[in-house]
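Quick check before the chapter quiz. The format below is the same one you will see on the exam, so make sure you can read both the input and the output lines.
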Amino acid sequence: MRYSAILLAPSIGLAFLGACTSTTTASPVVACGPDNVATTDWDVVATTDYEAAWYFAAVDPVPVTVFTVAAAPTSSDPDASVVDAVIVDPSAAAASAVAAAVGNNFPNSCATASASGNVVTFHLTNCSGPLGLLASSGTITATLNVVGNAIQVQLAGSNITANGATINLSSSGTLTAANGQKTLQASSQSSGTGPYGNAVSHAGTYSVVWPTGDGCATINAALSGVGTGSFSGTTTQVTNYVVCTGKCPQSGTAVSSFNGGTVTLTFNGSSNAQCNASDGTSASVALRCK
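Here is the expected output.
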C-alpha cells in the first residue's frame, strides 16, 4: 500500500516535513494502522529533528548581547566607535560567533565552518551533533540577519545526509531569547527521504525551545499534508517532543490523522516508540537513534 502523510518542517512558528509517500521496500512493515504509517511518522519526526539540530548549530552560539545590542540606539560619540562598529553590522558579528563555535556542536574535528559577512558555511563529514543528530554529512549555509532583538536565519543545502536520511534543506526561521531561554519559530520547504526511506516533502510550522547552554530542546508542530487518494488531507501534530544530544527522544507524541483514523507514536527515552492506532492495532517502532 502507498501511504501519503505529512511530514515535519520549520519558519516563524515552525514547519515540519509534510506530504509523504512510501515508495521503498527499505521501510519495515509495522502492524499499527495502515501499511507504513508508523514508519512514515517516524521519518517525519526524525527529519524535523535533524533540521532543528542544524538550526541549533546555526544560532545557539550567537551571544545574546549581539541581538540585544543591535536593538539599542547607536551613538554619535567618536569615542564610541568600537562599540558602534559592532552595532552597525551585528549580523556579521553573529555569523563570526557561530563559525568560531563549530567545534562545540560538532566535536572530533568532523566539521568546519567559515563566515563571510552574515553567511556561515558548514562542511560536515559523518558528524554527530546537537539534539540527537547522527552521521550527518554535506554542506549547509546559514544566512543570519539580526533585526531588533531577533535573529532571522535561512538554512540551505542539497543532499544533506543524517543517520540514513537525505534532505534537500530549504528553511527559514526566527530566533528570540528571553529569561535564559531561546525560541526558534520556523517554516520549511525541505524535501528528501527519511531514515526508513519514505519520501518526504512538507508544509507546516514548528517551534524549537531550549534553555541557553542546555543540550535538550522541545519541539511542537502542527502540520498539514497534501496527500492523494484515500489519504488526502492527512495532518500530523507533534506535541512536547523532547530531544537531547546523544540520547534517544525523551518524551512526546506524534499523531497522524487521516480519514477519521489516527496513528500515535509515543516516545519514552528508549530506542523504540510505542505505536497505537485507532483501529486497535499497536506495535513497537525502532527509532534508529543514539
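If your answer matched, good. The two ends are 30 Å apart (CA to CA).
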